[in-house]
Amino acid sequence: MDLAYLWFFIVGVLFVGYFVLDGFDFGVGMSLPFLGKNDVSRRQIINTIGPVWDLNETWVIVAGACLFAAFPEWYATLFSGFYLALLLILLSLILRGVSFEYRHQRDSVRWKRNFDRMIVIGSAVPAFLWGVAFANIVQGVPIDASHEFTGSLLTLLNPYGLLGGLTTLLLFFTHGVYFVALKTDGQVHTDARKLAVRSGVLTVVVAAVFLGWTIMSAWTGGAPLVGLAIVCALLAAVLLIASVVANLRDREGWAFGFGAFTVVFAVLTLWLSLFPNVMPSSTDPTFNLTIENASSTDYTLTIMSWAALIFLPLVLLYQGWTYWVFRKRVTRGRIEKAAAEVH
């Protein structure tokens, strides 16, 4: 296989990893107003991702770096054309990270409440805008002959893009609530399971419409891998329904696992619908950015391939070990004991 095509799929895998891992982080953050009835429960929710959120977030840095090195033309067009959307995502991630670190620095209700709001905003904005961005990448945006984006932020806020944003928002929210149910006990655990039922049903409906729209567009556009995209879309739908059923049966581990694979196959549906383009032009198909005209030289891709072969397994092993170390539930009793020791 040509290295450019290989790296198209490697970049896709990196974004899949990011959306699976940081996706439930976003969901946990967005669940605070619904599940955090008091400071103890809010601390319990936040502590579920406390040891791993920053590690999960590094996946987007690696994905962006690989995109820059493997497909510089794609990177240039994407980051210049989607500048405001990506800037909002970056600022939101900074806001969320600062809030995690500073929330516990003062024993003030107002102080904590303000940072809790920033956690919610810093989780909801990226969850929505990532969907908007990727939906527009798949659908196509105005690109001229020199591969420059000629639209604006409002260009991205079209019906398909907004539906994509709503889909990722709900999907990440439900994915995060499953994680809260998996990692907590007591009232937070019970409330998370109930909330996941309502959000899960809504997510099934919205995701079905979005994935159906995506497949229809890929089919009419003659995407060469539309058959595989259909299979992935069907698997995503089945797994999402399975996650709702597992949650109803109080099998939160299975629910979270099914939810994670739902994200995997949903992102793969978009990626396969995009192939062999990396950024279609809605102005003129001859202006499309493709895998071949947007990629780096074979020498660059060869060096990157060796680096990925060496370091990616090490990163996966380290992240797996981290999750194993922090695998236990965050119990309400432990949070109350820690609060009593502080006072």
From TrEMBL:
First-listed, main subcellular location of the protein, grouped into a coarse class: membrane
Enzyme class, broadest EC rank: oxidoreductase
Gene Ontology biological-process annotations: aerobic electron transport chain
EC number annotated for this UniProt entry: 1.10.3.-
Subcellular location: Cell membrane
InterPro entries noted in UniProt: Cyt-d_oxidase_su2 (IPR003317)
TM annotation in the entry: 6-32, 77-98, 119-139, 159-181, 201-219, 225-246, 253-274, 303-326
Keyword Transport attributed: yes
Recorded GO CC terms: cytochrome complex; plasma membrane
Record has Electron transport as a keyword: yes
Entry keyword set: Cell membrane, Electron transport, Heme, Iron, Membrane, Metal-binding, Oxidoreductase, Transmembrane, Transmembrane helix, Transport
One Pfam family of this chain: Cyt_bd_oxida_II
GO MF annotation terms: electron transfer activity; metal ion binding; oxidoreductase activity, acting on diphenols and related substances as donors, oxygen as acceptor
Similarity section: Belongs to the cytochrome ubiquinol oxidase subunit 2 family.
PANTHER family: CYTOCHROME BD-I UBIQUINOL OXIDASE SUBUNIT 2, CYTOCHROME BD2 SUBUNIT II
Protein name: Cytochrome d ubiquinol oxidase subunit II
Annotated organism of origin: Microbacterium halimionae
